[in-house]
Amino acid sequence: MTPHLEINNLTMAYGDSVIQKNLNFTVKRGEIFIIMGGSGCGKSTLLRHLIGLLKPSEGEILVNGVSLWNTSFEERNKIISRSGVLFQGGALWSSMTLGENIELLLTEYTQLNNKQRQDVISYKLSLVGLSRYKDYYPSEISGGMRKRAGLARAIALDPEILFFDEPSAGLDPVSSRLLDNLILELRDSLGATIVIVSHELASIFTVGDNAIFLDPTEKTIIATGAPKHLLESSEDSRVIQFLTRTI
Ligand SMILES: Nc1ncnc2c1ncn2[C@@H]1O[C@H](COP(=O)(O)OP(=O)(O)OP(=O)(O)O)[C@@H](O)[C@H]1O
């Protein structure tokens, strides 16, 4: 079966500054895949490449077997429109209610009429436990609720693949655990593939089916596998140190 994502010999750079090189990995359909590594190693940069915001210096990214950059502009936009993204902080539009935040995407990208849009908004907010908050502004709800609202917006267009950048950043341990449970529920109910940048160990071990570990010095992947398996069997001190740290 074709992997949902296939990354071949990817090198990423800002100008002359190479961030990571020779990255090779695949993400299976329906998998929760974690991109991990210490601060500044290039996790968010990789995520920005996977969602088509940045163009590789070398190598290619295949989505369902189709190269993201070796294709037409229209085809690339079509691929990108089938993915949902939750950036750090939730990134909701603060001048709009939660309902309006979702509605904007539906108006832009679908032909749904007003009644259908309201039904989708109610359904997506109910999936993340925010049914009663449709008319609230982001500033009127908690940080954990804002993350969930961002999640509702990320799934507004029924994406096949979801990308999350540090979803539990800034959350207390309880909200973080609730968000992990929600991510698992969404994977099961939507059947979506989920790619998460994270350095939160509790979250990595709870939701991760598979993972890569980026190293800032070698500037490439130094470990691949299920996080629990890496913890038990990796012999690389950098990986073990990361997976057993206490902060
Ligand atoms: N737009 C940019 N232009 C130039 N350099 C950048 C840009 N964005 C990030 N970088 C650099 O690329 C490197 C990787 O950054 P990136 O944010 O991808 O790392 P990260 O692993 O996600 O870090 P963190 O865990 O701290 O969020 C860093 O050295 C950063 O300074």
Give a short synopsis of this structure.
The chain is of the alpha/beta class and 247 residues long.
What does this structure look like?
The protein has a 6-stranded mixed beta sheet with strand order 6-7-8-3-9-10, with helices on both faces. A 4-stranded antiparallel beta sheet has the order 2-1-4-5, with helices on one face. The chain folds into 2 domains: 169 residues, Rossmann fold; 66 residues, no CATH class. The longest helix has 18 residues. It is of the alpha/beta class. Helix 3 packs across helix 4, helix 4 packs across helix 5 and helix 6 packs parallel to helix 7. The protein is globular, with a radius of gyration of 18 Å. It is built from 9 helices and 10 strands. Adenosine-5'-triphosphate binds next to helix 1. It holds the Pfam family ABC_tran. Keywords: ATP-binding, Nucleotide-binding, Transport. This is Phospholipid/cholesterol/gamma-HCH transport system ATP-binding protein. GO terms for molecular function: ATP binding; ATP hydrolysis activity.
Q: How are the SSEs ordered, and which strands pair?
A:
Elements: E1 5-14, E2 17-27, E3 32-36, H1 43-50, E4 58-63, E5 66-67, H2 73-81, E6 83-86, H3 98-109, H4 114-127, H5 143-154, E7 161-165, H6 173-190, E8 193-197, H7 201-207, E9 210-215, E10 220-225, H8 227-233, H9 237-244
Averaging pLDDT over every residue, what do you get? 92
C-alpha geometry: globular
- Unreliable runs: none
Total domain count:
2
User: Which structural category do the helix and sheet elements fall into?
Assistant: alpha/beta
| Tally of individual helices | 9
Number of strands: 10
| Elements, N to C (H/E) | EEEHEEHEHHHEHEHEEHH
What compounds are bound to the protein? Answer: adenosine-5'-triphosphate
Named CATH topology of the largest domain: Rossmann fold
Radius of gyration: 18 Å
Q: How far do the termini sit from each other?
A: 39 Å
**Based on the structure given, which CATH architecture of the largest domain is correct?**
3-Layer(aba) Sandwich
Question: What is the strand arrangement across the widest sheet?
Answer: 6-7-8-3-9-10
The oligomerization state is single chain
In CATH, the homologous superfamily of the largest domain goes by the name P-loop containing nucleotide triphosphate hydrolases
- Let me know the largest β-sheet: 6 strands, mixed
In CATH, what is the class of the largest domain?
Alpha Beta
Strand content: 15-25%
As a percent range, the share of helical residues equals 25-40%
